[in-house]
Amino acid sequence: MKGVLLVNLGSPDSTNPKDVKRYLDEFLMDPRVIDVPRWARILLVRGIILNTRPKKSAAAYERIWWEEGSPLIVISERLQKKIQARTTAPIALAMRYGSMTLKKGLQELVDQGVDDVLVAPLYPQFAMATTETIEVAIAALKKEFFPELEITSLPAFYHKPEYIDVLSKSISETLTNIEYDHLLFSYHGVPERHIRKSDITKSHCTIDNSCCIMPSPAHQFCYRHQCYETTRLVSEKLDLTPGTFSTSFQSRLGFDPWLQPYTDRTIERMGKAGIKKLVVVTPAFVSDCLETLEEIAMEGEEIFHEVGGKEFTTIPCLNDRDDWAEVLTGWIDEWRIVDVKSAIA
To answer: CATH classification of 161-315 is 1.10.260.40, yes or no?
Structure first.
């Protein structure tokens, strides 16, 4: 029997600094998140970050925490239920980090008689620190605990017409009700070295204004290209006027160069340049989380207002929208009948 494991990032069990510290340790010690030698990662994460950051991060989680718990978990559970209501295939939910482990999710499906699993990372674009780390962890679990399971991974869907349609509709619903000067597509940031490491050609990615628009097999695993392509496809779908939208990257750590332009500096620059009404959408996520709710919606707005901006609007992620649940269910049912590559390739 076929079943599906939806996978999202994860969340600490609570806003208690001890829970946040435990979560950050698992997350930041992942070699595909901070890809330096283990000794250096231990020194950085356990020697520095975990001695300074948990209290600050706990306060940030406190700002966005819902009465029901972690927004990311609650939203993901709602999406799971909506998909389950639309298909007969068993649908389980797991997180890459935290107590809702991948192993528990796979076991839940096995206990229902599933022997063929579609693992669906809830990220539109491929990245080492999101999709790849899920695939590697799943492969390790299969080898150790679930050798008989047939496992297929949902490919990046940043360019799929169904996804672009739903994303564009969600943006349009906000834009049609307000006046705005600029629409900023803000994506999760990654170190530039991740882009080069993911380049299967070993030569294409120069991280300039040319490589992402020049056709190449490297684009299959190029996060930067996939982000800019998402922006391009949505802008065409919505017939946005050139100059009224742009792309930036949020969340950076350490001193190595990360993808630019940086979102916080872009927001500051736009406010100083006289843009009074800014709208921000975050298409690297399909579920609102700490990064969208606190870093963008709260900190981003504070920056914008400090430099003279007046109206700052954030567009929610797709979350558990009915049309988004329909799209995912469609891909799942096509995979059940044919295969995932034919369904959404």
So the answer is: no
> Using one digit for the tens of pLDDT, what is the confidence trace for 77-91?
999 999 999 999 999
Q: Could you report the per-residue pLDDT of 53-62, keeping only the tens digit for each? A: 999 999 999 9
Bridge partners of 182?
278
Q: How far is CA 245 from CA 27, 65, 103, 255, 309, in A?
A: 32, 30, 41, 28, 16
Exposed (0-12), middle (13-18) or buried (19+): which is 341, by Cβ within 10 Å?
Answer: exposed
> Could you give the CA distance from residue 132 to residue 139 in angstroms, rounded to a whole number?
11
* Measured distance CA(111)–CA(114) in Å, rounded: 7
d(CA 143, CA 149): 9
Q: Residue 149 burial (CB < 10 Å; 0-12/13-18/19+)? A: middle
Element containing residue 54 per DSSP (H, E):
helix 54-64
What's the N-to-C CA distance of the chain in angstroms? 23
Give pLDDT tens digits for 261-320.
999 999 999 999 999 999 999 999 999 999 999 999 999 999 999 999 999 999 999 999
147 burial (CB, 10 Å; 0-12 / 13-18 / 19+) is exposed
Q: Which CATH architecture has domain 2-157+321-344?
A: 3-Layer(aba) Sandwich (3.40)
Return the structure tokens found at 126. 């491929």
- What residues contact 258, with CB distance under 8 A and at least 6 apart? 189, 190, 191, 192, 249, 252
Q: How far apart are alpha carbons 240 and 281 in whole angstroms?
A: 14
Is residue 234 within 8 A of residue 164, CB to CB? The reply is: yes
The residue extents of the domains of the chain are 2-157+321-344, 161-315
